[in-house]
UniProtKB/TrEMBL annotation:
GO BP term, pick one: aerobic respiration
Sequence similarity: Belongs to the FMN-dependent alpha-hydroxy acid dehydrogenase family.
GO cellular component, one term: plasma membrane
Cofactor annotation: FMN
Protein name, per record: L-lactate dehydrogenase
Lineage, top ranks: Bacteria, Pseudomonadati, Pseudomonadota, Alphaproteobacteria, Hyphomicrobiales
Length: 387
């Protein structure tokens, strides 16, 4: 009997059964002790809402804008690496589901499907995420390819100058495609649905890189190239250089401190994303939701503030909006759906979030997401969970 799916957690359980361990763990883990990864969810749960009654709850609206783009609800699909390893052609399937739901999809530099693959599969512009690499010419080519594909915003990730220590990925020997080890082979034998779907696609490695960098042709050459490419020298002058070349809406991802938020606002970027990289970079950093209010208070009048990290329900979306986020990005929430059921699973995850958001907003006495503010929260609104 097929499981009844009513929550994001239901999708997670199905994905865990269907996705090979190294790729499921890549999605469902954090760095070091995973204290920040856990806090992202726990600190949302600590926020309590004010229930209101005898309020007209008809004619509700979740429509708003994110980085100037009209959206059906304040949710965007975050850039996630290796999405096409959760399910064959994963980026294409997720982009199609996002388009149908009226929300933005963001393609990662480290995607399995290329910029061009996704552009051919959708009818609306999507967003592209850029890592700042040592190979400046490659950076420039990626930006130019994103422009040519009609991408309508560039998300520049600032918090991956050095890769966080991710123990599960190290133990699993993460690679795309999987390296032919005995342990990997035995695990793949338990995932026949995944294996069958992968046999039906040619997209099994980093197609934004292969064929676009001299000498990078296979798994070993990609690994050697990528290991040396994240640039620890990244500075704010580099951000300005990217802005000058892109010349379209720019979103800065990875802001977790007011001082950095001030610098981000000074670049003239359209938006910033309060983010700790899903708890996969600096373990021991605060959860995104705990620092969101202070960043909104500091720079919210000068730059649009978005956030990610820990979103597992529509209630979480509402809490983030109440604390000043114009919208949120979801990563794991849609990846669980993708790993479980492909495009239909991503659509289901978005449907779940939408229903939960709509119901919770109504029970808090509001009909328009644009009118939601901190008054719907009991105070104090946020208290960081113990690590």
């Amino acid at each position: 009997m097929a499981p009844i799916i009513t929550t994001i957690e239901d999708l997670r359980r199905v994905a865990k059964r269907r996705v090979p361990r190294m790729f499921y763990d890549y999605c469902d883990s954090g760095s070091w002790t995973e204290s920040t990864y856990r806090a992202n969810e726990a600190d949302f749960a600590a926020i309590k809402l004010r229930q209101r009654v005898a309020v007209d709850m008809t004619d509700r609206s979740l429509t708003t804008t994110m980085a100037g783009r009209p959206v059906a609800m304040p949710v965007a699909l975050a850039p996630t690496g290796l999405t096409g390893m959760q399910h064959a052609d994963g980026e294409i399937l997720a982009a199609r589901a996002a388009e149908a739901a009226g929300v933005p999809f963001t393609l990662s530099t480290m995607s399995i499907c290329s910029i061009e693959d996704v552009a051919e599969a959708v009818t609306q512009p999507f967003w592209f995420q850029l890592y700042f690499m040592r190979d400046r010419a490659f950076n420039d080519r990626l930006i130019d390819r994103a422009k040519a594909a009609g991408c309508s915003a560039l998300v520049l990730t600032l918090d991956l100058q050095i890769l966080g220590q991710r123990h599960k990925d190290l133990r699993n020997g993460l690679s795309a495609p999987p390296k032919p080890t005995l342990g990997t082979a035995l695990n793949l034998l338990t995932k026949p649905r995944w294996c069958w779907s992968m046999l039906g696609t040619r997209r099994r490695t980093f197609r934004n890189i292969v064929g676009h960098v001299e000498g990078v042709r296979d798994t070993s050459s990609i690994s050697a190239w990528a290991a040396d490419q994240f640039d620890p020298r990244l500075g704010w002058d580099d951000v300005q250089r990217i802005r000058d070349r892109w010349q379209g809406p720019l979103i800065l991802k990875g802001i977790l401190d007011v001082e950095d938020a001030e610098k981000a606002a000074a670049t003239g970027a359209e938006a910033l994303i309060v983010s700790n990289h899903g708890g996969r970079q600096l373990d021991g950093a605060p959860s995104s939701i705990t620092v969101l209010p202070e960043i909104v208070d500091a720079v919210g009048s000068r730059i649009e503030v978005l956030m990610d990290g820990g979103i597992r329900s529509g209630q979480d979306v509402l809490k983030a909006v109440a604390l000043g986020a114009k919208g949120v990005f979801i990563g794991r929430a849609f990846l669980y759906g993708l790993g479980a059921y492909g495009q239909a699973g991503v659509a289901k995850s978005l449907s779940i979030l939408r229903q939960e958001l709509d119901t919770t907003m109504a029970l808090c006495g509001h009909r328009d997401i644009r009118a939601v503010d901190r008054s719907i929260l009991r105070t104090p609104p946020v208290r960081a969970a113990a690590p």
